[in-house]
Description:
A: Nucleotidyltransferase, domain 5, five-stranded mixed beta sheet, B: 2 domains, 6 helices
Amino acid sequence: xxxxxxxxxxxxxxxxxxxxxxxxxxxxxxxxxxxxxxxxxxxxxxxxxxxxxxxxxxxxxxxxxxxxxxxxxxxxxxxxxxxxxxxxxxxxxxxxxxxxxxxxxxxxxxxxxxxxxxxxxxxxxxxxxxxxxxxxxxxxxxxxxxxxxxxxxxxxxxxxxxxxxxxxxxxxxxxxxxxxxxxxxxxxxxxxxxxxxxxxxxxxxxxxxxxxxxxxxxxxxxxxxxxxxxxxxxxxxxxxxxxxxxxxxxxxxxxxxxxxxxxxxxxxxxxxxxxxxxxxxxxxxxxxxxxxxxxxxxxxxxxxxxxxxxxxxxxxxxxxxxxxxxxxxxxxxxxxxxxxxxxxxxxxxxxxxxxxxxxxxxxxxxxxxx
Amino acid sequence: xxxxxxxxxxxxxxxxxxxxxxxxxxxxxxxxxxxxxxxxxxxxxxxxxxxxxxxxxxxxxxxxxxxxxxxxxxxxxxxxxxxxxxxxxxxxxxxxxxxxxxxxxxxxxxxxxxxxxxxxxxxxxxxxxxxxxxxxxxxxxxxxxxxxxxxxxxxxxxxxxxxxxxxxxxxxxxxxxxxxxxxxxxxxxxxxxxxxxxxxxxxxxxxxxxxxxxxxx
Lengths: 370, 217
Ligand SMILES: [Zn+2]
């Protein structure tokens, strides 16, 4: 198989319909249609609204990506798609489209893991991933520390949030401050004009007996909300910029502290940061500072590649092709809780695949038909 | 002419090939939970049975519902993708019309499918099999007066015998009927529907708790 495979990747795990095309580790196209505006008034992603938008955007986004890349579909070496984790109904639109696309073109299909794709996307920015790679993934849906000796076959969870995702905390604090949804960009902007040391908000799970690599943002969220309410109660003005800066400081502090520690403990001399929260300027700056001090090389893709997109799926798909990993079969399922330990979903018999992780992520998740 | 018809708007995952004169091959599997897994293998089986490749298809026909959302979209996005790759038109047909066609009744009747949440998707048809008005979603008891005295077909009718005492088959959608109906309409130069979903319900505008928290612990 070509060592520079031409692969199209489809991503529909949340509210972005993404289609990317790569040749090996070279990005050729990254087409995105987002339904984020439709979710804004609900303060979070509404699964059914996202799924409806994916259906409308799917084929036009594929066609746009092909035009942007200047390649014809017949030349593709494979079609990759996010098989999970994510919102079940949203994933199903992408998986169904990818199957139809691969089948119609007579190309192999690769159902891949969304989290592994977030890591692999860095190949498009900084070249082949070091092995192993340490990755901190932070977004509205994930806050994980992952160690990947082989991104196509061996990804190990080091730690994860035990309650809210980091991006969720940003959204919730933005809601308390009446700043709208999503909360990340606006808090980042306001925080630049605030004092990060104005208020000492708690750093979750950083005690000596706490798990070293897990995260908790629920306590921080509550502390910030209480602090704001107390001010309002007393009839005082809320210093929005200082609150934003101090909150953001607490998040960035915990994330970078644990990520650097994981690198040191595992003897990994570089760290990649991905996910939507990786666009946060304070997180980037603090990570750069602390990695530098610890002699760790930091790799953070440009913001557009950090948020959910099709290019990251294509990047991992291309790696699957290059390493001769088995393709998925036509019965490939959308798996809303695909474990990160499965970088892809190879075909073949599935003798009662059992998932020991919880499935409580979405309303009407119990039956794909409803 | 070679039409590929698919419908995933009901618990049936059904696929058929129609050459303009008759049905060439058909596959129907009833499993409300596995539309995504079953559809593509069914398409492959139907083509293999007919000894044809997908690129022989000159048009795609898709049931546009009404139907519960998640399964419905599997057929629609598959049809749209095939249409895009093959460069052939994609025609929408109301899922209830397919059941009405399959019923072949010569008198006024009702078609009802299961809309879940104790509701049915339904429409009335005249003695020539033509639908009167747009399909709707309602609680069976609320439409009892409108369907009284009429025979009724479809799983939704069979599910509520107190409202549909003269319920009968076919219970499930068949893409063969959908394809035959579409082939007849196309031959007569009639317009079919755009391949857009008939949801008939607004989305549940509810952000789930802990949305997207999907990493294993
Ligand atoms: Zn993501």
